[in-house]
Amino acid sequence: MPTFKKLERLCSRSDIADLYKKGEVFYHAFFKITYQVINLADLSKSTTQVLIVVPKKNISLAHNRNKIKRQIREIYRNQKFQLQNPSKQIRLSVIYNTTNLISFTELQMRLIESLQKINSQVKKTLSDVN
Q1: Strand arrangement, sheet containing 88-96
Q2: Residue 110, Cα to own-chain centre: how many angstroms?
Q3: Claim: this prediction has a pTM higher than 0.90
Q4: What is the rounded distance in angstroms from the CA atom of residue 23 to the CA atom of residue 35?
């Protein structure tokens, strides 16, 4: 059963600042996605870390922001196997970038497309390096 543990959450301020400074950005459907691939010497940390942001500017009611975050977390939790890489760490920021509330199925479809796009870009950069 897939889980979403504390280790998989991007919490460190320095890591978040580094992600926004050095990460690659793309927009897809309702999301602004920033990601960074990190080479690791210590393979025990080879996990994907995720930050989920729903701005108050876009969704004013807190219960709606929390609902969207829960839905994104659930979708990610079930689809995170797409981003697993044993020798790299991937840091990922998902920003909900629309003012409308979207149905769970639409959100799921768009987020899965975004994760697949990230996966293909990561594989492309890894093949360019090798």
Answers
A1: 24-28, 31-39, 88-96, 48-53
A2: 13
A3: no
A4: 5
